[in-house]
Structures are given as C-alpha cells and as structure tokens.
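Batch 3, record 17
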Amino acid sequence: MAAVTTTPRQKAGWGVANFVVIALALIPVLWLVSLSFKTPAAVLDPSFVPSQWTWANYSGILQSSQFIRPLINSIGIGLISTFIAVVLASMAAYAVARLAFPGKSVLIGMALLIAIFPQISLITPLFSIERSLGLFNTWPGLIIPYVAFGLPLGIYILSAFFREIPWELEKAAKMDGATPFQAFTKVIAPLAAPGMVTTAILVFLACWNDFLFAISFTSTTTARTAPAALQYFSGGSVFTVPTGPIAAAAVVITIPIIIFVLFFQRRIVAGLTSGAVKG
Amino acid sequence: MTVNAPAAAGTEAVREQAPGHKKQLSEGARAERRLGWLLCAPAVIVMLGVTGYPIIYAIWLSLERYNLELPQQVKFIGFANYGAVLSSGYWWTALEVTLIITVFSVAITLVLGMLLAQLMHRTLFGRGTVRTAALIPYGIVTVAAAYGWQYAWTPSQGYLSAAFNNSAPLTTQFQAIIVIIVAEIWKTTPFMGLLLLAGLSLVPEDLQKAAKVDGASAWQRFTKITLPLMKPAILVALLFRTLDSFRIFDNIYILTAGANSTGSVSILGYDNLFSALNLGIGSAISVLIFICVAIIAIIFIRGFGTAAPGTDSGSR
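Prediction for the assembled complex:
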C-alpha cells in the first residue's frame, strides 16, 4: 500500500526481510517444541531436530498433578481476574469517557501510576498482608493483584473505545425514559463489546504470563499457576533432568497464546496501540 | 496519593465537559457526578488497596528491623535499613546490572522495533504473516521462552551453545548478561514494533512523496519527516519499555537466578524476602526501586515531554 514504486529487486529485499523476521520469531518456539519431543537420551544431543521422537513428555505432564492442578489454577484465576477487571474497568471507563465528575484526572493519573508500578515493590508488603488476611496461597490472593494491574490497561483501552461510540443513542434512550444506568447497560454496553473483548484478551494474557506474583504468593499447587509450577518438575528419576517435561509444559502453556494470536490479532494490535499514539 | 488535587482537577473537568452547568449544578449534573464516582469507586478501591496501601505499609516496614525468623525482635530503627542497603555492594551491583540491561535492551529494541515497523508498514506480501509471527514472542509466556533460551545455551544440549563451540555463556557475568539482553530483545521487539507501526501510520504519505520529488534521500526523509512526526509515539513506547525493562525479573530468574552477579534489583528484592526472610531490608529495597521508577518516569515526562497516555484531553 505504502510503497511508492517497487522494483523486483526491492520486492526480493522485502521478501528476505519478511523471512528473517518470521524465522527469528519462530526458531526459539520451534526449539521448545523440538525439546518437548526429545527422549531423555536425545535431550543430551544439541541437534535442533530430535534424533529420537517421543510423546512421553506430554503424556507424563498431563498425568501429573504437579502440572494439571497449576494449569487449572492458571485458567481459573486468569478467567476470574479477567472478568472482574473488565467489569470494573468498563464502569470506570464509561464514567471517564462520558460523565462530568470531579476527580477524573486523579483516576487517570492513578491508573498511569499503577501501569508503571514496579510489582517487586509490592511483593514484600503484599506477602505480609496476604499472610495476615489468610489470602496467601489462595486463588483470591492472586486474583486481587491481577485485577488491580489489569485495571489501568482496561480503563485506557475502554475509555478510548467508549469515546468512539455514537452517543446520540444514549441520549435517545434517556429521552425515552431510561436512567443513566439503564442507558449504560442496555444501549452502550452492547456497542462496547468489541472493546471489552480486546481488553479481556490483553488482561488474560497478562495474568497467564505473570510469574513474579505467582511464585511469591503461592506455596503449593493449591493456587500455584502453570508458569510458576515448571520449576518444581522432576525427571523420571533423580538422575533424569526434567528438560523434556518442562519443554512440553512450556509448549502446552504457549498453545493457547498462539491460538489467541491467530484468532484475535487485529484486536490485540488495536488494543496495544490504543491510547499510546494519540499524542 | 494526591489528596488536594481532586477538587481543583474536578472543577476543571466540569468546566470542560459541561459549559452549560457553570453557575450551579443542576439535579442532573449532580446525579451524573454521583454516578461517575459510583462507577469509578470499585476500580479505585482495588487499585488503592493493592498498590497504595501496601506501598505505604512498605515504607513503614522499611523503617523497622523485621526478620520473619526473629519475630520477637521487631523494632523501629529509622533509616538503618536504607543505610544497610545503600552501603551494600549487592544493591549497587544489582542496580548497575539492571541499568545495563535496561539501556542496551531498550536501545536495541528501539532500533529493531523501528525496522520491524517499517517492514510491517511497507511490505506488500506476507504482511499478515509477519504480524502474526511478530505477535508470538509478545504473547509467549516469558518463563516458557526463558527455559527455551536456557536449554539452548546449555553446553552439549543446546543448539546455540553447540553453534558457539559448546560455550557456556550463562556461567559468566558478562556473557550471561548478553544472553539475558538477547532474550529481552526477542520478547519485546514485537511490542515496540507494533507501537511504532501505529505511530508510523500517522505520518502522511503525501509528505513523503513531496519530499521525494524535492530530491530528499530515503535517510533524509526518515530523519527529517518520519522521526519528528513519530516523536510522541516513540517517547511513549520508550517510557513503557524502559520502565518494564527496569522491572526485569522472569528472564533472569530462569536463566541465571542471579548467579555470578547477574541479578537485577527485582531479583535482589525477591531474594531478600524469600531467602533472607527479611521484611525490613526487603521493604527498603522495594521503596528504593519505587523511587528509581518514579525518577525514570519523571525524566521521561518532564525532561523529554512525553505525553502520558490518557492525559490527551488535558493537553489539548
């Protein structure tokens, strides 16, 4: 679209560049896939393609409660956190985009502050607080911080989306006797659904990806999520390194992401870039 | 945090949004206000509860001698913990490592991200494929990717180690930091590229064409037209990338666990809590990291005039 004139040589140049980018993005992922199919003996051979193939790593981890339970935790905690964050962020973003009220800029400032907040600074105090409240090593102990860190992202994306919605519809609804709250739930929320899906995807990815909170606020598989569980894997015996199982688990937790990316790439890109480039 | 600001900022917002309601608030405006607060309240409570209160609690803890192994000896000791951290070589080494990783990974990511953005912007074929491929490093769980890098650099097991004469870079400080930086760059370049791509699409194509007709070279067009117009997008991307990189934890934890002086400040804070079980020192480190992040953000926003996202309505 943008190219002014394209000679065959330039075309070839772009083709090579495209190929390099795709290769660089995929090789580290393919390496993990390759490792996950290697037998314990083949792991000790540095070749990129397995010399001996096996499904044993996958069948092993999928039968191990050391992985299945954390996987369930990851899915459950991720979905609940995402749901709560999207609901709370939608409410706040609606207010930011549509309503006149004192303190709006404080809310936006607070969201920005949290977006750049160093999570490590919270580890010590939250660890102490969660222990005294009995939240340590529970689902809510992870859900609450995930919601808090998902909110800024949600408020930004959703307020940007909400500003684009045709607000005459809301006025019309109000004229027909709807309260502001009804105007929100009946008219605006359905129109805002695409923005909410985008937010949900990005918040879920952030929860799914988190490692620091997951290893800090859990101590057993009761609440430990999948990324935090990998380091506790053991090999088939004391003498086997768990490289294969860890690689297989890494692939299993990567697959949902790749599916997400394939299905929702437009939304992900729109969400990532909204708010960042309006300058 | 800013207790006095709401009133001032609020009147401003009201004036901006509803010029008709200047003199006195009508019943509708008052209901609108109440609804606004009501809708924001849950988000504000969660955000303050998870960050505001704990950081204040951390400041309090950092002034105490508080070791979980010696709970009877908790005592207020003023700034002694800060003295202990700031006079320790561990803190300064960790800060130095963090800054080196941040500066190099962000700088290289910016250059590569710009190239990637140009590629995604200009290429005619396989544009969708490139974008999908680029999103995979962004989306992949950092820890999963880090294991991949770790195994790739393990002597006699990894393909990269084999390609470099069976070397073991993760066992020396200098090479391990390079591996960590490479892992960071691989993970974050797509994000940078996508942010810059969005900025690039704001540069009018006509301007480029006009400059080309006037005889400007591709490089001149890039430095004189594209870069100045993209400056706001670049600064925002840099701000977020820098702060994100300064918090680096996952990659180092998996790759070296901070061995051979490769730990970042985040690794140091984590170790102090979970290995030393020292809440006082750990909190002092937390507060110091928070101050560092605040300084970086202030440099970007005040020094370079980075427009903080979300403040666009105010700046116009």
